[in-house]
Amino acid sequence: MSINLKTSTVETREQRLGTIIGWDGKASALADESAYARGECGGCGTSGRGGAKARRVCELTGPFTQGSVCSEQMVECQAGNIRDAVLIQHSPIGCGAGQVIYNSIYRNGLAMRGHPVQNIRFISTNLRERDMVYGGADKLDAAIRAAFERHAPKAIFIATSCASGIIGDDVESVAKHAEADLGIPVIPLHCEGFASKHWSTGFDATQHGILRQIVRKNPTRKQEDLVNVINLWGSDVFTPMLKELGLRVNYVVDMATVEELAQMSEAAATVTFCYTLGTYLAQGLEQEHGVPQIRAPQPYGFAGTDAWIREVARVTGREDKVEAFIEREHARVRPKVEELKKKLAGLKGYVATGSAYSHSLIGVLRELGVGVDGSLVFHHDPVYDSEDPKQDTLTHLIENYGEVENFTVGNRQQYQFYNLLQRVKPDFIIIRHNGLAPLAARLGIPAIPLGDELHAFGYQGMINLGEAILAVLQHRKFHQDIAGRVKLPYKKSWLAEKDPFALARAQAE
């Protein structure tokens, strides 16, 4: 699927990939409806290859939403986490409310990676009522120049907002004039929250701007031992694994420097811990600069990690080193996994995370012998930007680890989460975005919040996750006590409802 870098505005995931945020059924049925399998969808749309639009999967749309996040917030947690850059939010001050938690995550991430700990560098243009009438371009220009004077950054990013999109500020012109004056990249990132129904478009918006204005266009050299790793803030697990193949890691986007972003075009390959986060940037690097992306299952569990590390070795010309590494890791990890399986026998888990990440975590749970009858993914991409079936994480899950009977796509709605947990009654949940965890606690179900997204990564990740499950189950009695003493804020009719999408189906009738 060709990425268009001629325009400064990224194409939304709905337009490009056919992304949905409402679906309920068996995992195999969703895989059949998606673009890789090209199954029939009862007239919902057609699949496309070679640049055509992705399949439009049938989608359930509810009458309201209790809350979520938006594309601008994903720009904040990517462009706002580049160590020698500044992010300007061209928005009302309220759009920056999330920066308290983002600053904490950023500082923790820097410490885990061994970087000097610093605060994030954000500036808000603080759009107000007068600006909504007369425009905020002057405020934006002043903010850019203030950012340059205060921080001497190597690049300045501008995140648009619903407010700046509504009034139609000419962000492009302001950025171009400032870039000419200051001599550094000034990069508009169009991420108005109303433009896309799912926040993952914000990842793409940041990566689009980086591809257009930071990545080195005509590198004078290739670093044949350098691998781009598209990641968030997690611990450094890629370095020890890729070091076994004689490879170095270039972590992007979060906590990278502008130079580390620029050198991505010089790398031997690009990998990511999650295709939801990384396929846009990986596809752009391959398309524009010939840097191959690793087309393999994600590196979780034995099957996924084996296939992934072998493909890394093949692409980088290090196949002579990979089999010995795999053999050593299997010998080290398998006995520990077998011990964990005995301790975890009979348990049932539930995964509530982003889509491709959830597919992989379910695989790890089943490697550990944990039953998984259900999962909530926060959105579903029927195809990724490469259009390569080797990156079809949902089909990889089904073919290697079996069916998931209750597989749900939903945009983090509390009222639906109650019904979802009631119908499978898990012993614990694994969750990435913690807003749903308190509801699980009210039902007596402990949660494992994966603050470090790489906790379950690779061979060691199976052991890490198994031990985390055993640890959280020690607190099960505490959660049962909570469940016995709290009242849920729902009507009896909804508490008795079996279908989490009953309101959506009623609206469609």
From TrEMBL:
Residue ranges annotated for the Nitrogenase/oxidoreductase component domain, each copy included: 79-473
Alphabetical list of InterPro entries matching this protein: Nase/OxRdtase_comp1 (IPR000510), NifE-like (IPR049939)
Top-level lineage group: Bacteria
SUPFAM superfamilies for this protein: Helical backbone' metal receptor (SSF53807)
GO molecular function list: oxidoreductase activity
Name of the protein in its database record: Oxidoreductase/nitrogenase component 1
Natural source organism: Rhodomicrobium vannielii (strain ATCC 17100 / DSM 162 / LMG 4299 / NCIMB 10020 / ATH 3.1.1)
